[in-house]
């Protein structure tokens, strides 16, 4: 195993297996994963800062075995920020978990080197002392039931945008990097977010029953878009903006402009890979940073 010592913003890291192919379909290597995350860091890090991290690791690439990692192992470098938080319902019967927090480039590079392709975070942050704060983000996950695609998700996103606007909330869209998309809005804690999101989803389902479903039963989804409101549960996470996804190609959960949502006519219109996203960021900056 070839190891390469590097210095990242004053931290010493050791990178390994840089030529290992993690996306076999196009030969995308670990070195390219690390390069992507390093270059997208200026727009990615603000969306990770203060949020307890869950990673999805693919040590042998996207066609190999993967695992979720919430608890930061004992061998995690001491300079990586960790916060200890309650873990109700832990699959390993832990009362609490030491979550890592990615708030600086060295931590991001460290996890990229572990083949942590996907970065997932909750809709809340911790304060400087590591105490959980109230949720600051509302999220709707739009999941198309075949034969519906992201094209139908875009239509529903536009309906949801107007419904949120009527409630005084400004929505921001992004692709999931998979087959669907998500809408986020800054949240003011006017009520419990899951209950609020569920009620809004049910209203839209009632108004557009042929296009929208708000229940989780898969048998109800064919040809419709499921508005998943449950991602607002504080125990759940959503893929972060600019995170890679473990698909055949290195697709990214990509922030969109509303014009792109309005103009979408084919699923391929909204598929973006790591190189695409770096070019978009160079041209537009952080689309997700604009309310």
TrEMBL record:
Keywords carried by this UniProt record: Ligase
Matching CDD domains: MtLigD_Pol_like (cd04863)
Keyword match Ribonucleoprotein: no
Keyword Ligase attached: yes
Coiled coil: none
Enzyme Commission code: 6.5.1.1
Superkingdom of the organism of origin: Bacteria
MF (Gene Ontology): DNA ligase (ATP) activity
Annotated ranges, domain DNA ligase D polymerase: 29-288
Broad enzyme group: ligase
Record-linked NCBIfam families: ligD_pol (TIGR02778)
Name of the molecule in the record: Non-homologous end-joining DNA ligase
Protein species of origin: Nonomuraea spiralis
Gene from which the chain derives: ligD
């Amino acid at each position: 195993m070839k190891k390469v010592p590097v210095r990242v913003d004053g931290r010493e890291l050791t990178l390994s297996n840089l030529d290992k192919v993690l996306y076999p379909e196009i030969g995308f290597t670990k070195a390219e994963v690390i390069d992507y995350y390093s270059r997208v860091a200026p727009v990615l890090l603000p969306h990770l800062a203060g949020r307890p991290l869950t990673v999805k690791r693919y040590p042998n690439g996207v066609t190999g075995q993967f695992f979720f990692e919430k608890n930061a192992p004992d061998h995690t470098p001491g300079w990586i920020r960790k916060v200890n938080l309650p873990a109700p319902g832990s699959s390993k019967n832990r009362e609490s978990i030491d979550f890592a927090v990615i708030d600086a480039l060295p931590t991001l590079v460290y996890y990229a080197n572990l083949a942590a392709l996907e970065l997932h975070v909750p809709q809340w942050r911790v304060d400087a002392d590591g105490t959980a704060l109230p949720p600051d983000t509302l999220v709707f996950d739009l999941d198309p039931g075949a034969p519906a695609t992201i094209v139908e998700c875009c239509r529903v996103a536009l309906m949801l945008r107007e419904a949120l606007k009527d409630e005084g909330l400004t929505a921001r869209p992004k692709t999931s990097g998979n087959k669907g998309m998500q809408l986020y809005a800054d949240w003011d804690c006017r009520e419990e977010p899951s209950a609020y999101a569920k009620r809004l989803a049910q209203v839209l389902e009632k108004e557009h029953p042929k296009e929208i479903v708000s229940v989780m039963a898969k048998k109800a989804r064919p040809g419709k878009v499921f508005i998943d409101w449950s991602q607002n549960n504080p125990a759940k996470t959503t893929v972060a903006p600019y995170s890679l996804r473990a698909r055949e190609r290195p697709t990214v959960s990509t922030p969109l402009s509303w014009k792109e949502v309005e103009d979408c006519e084919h699923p391929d219109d909204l598929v973006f890979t790591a190189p695409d996203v770096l070019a978009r960021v160079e041209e537009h900056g952080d689309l997700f940073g604009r309310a």
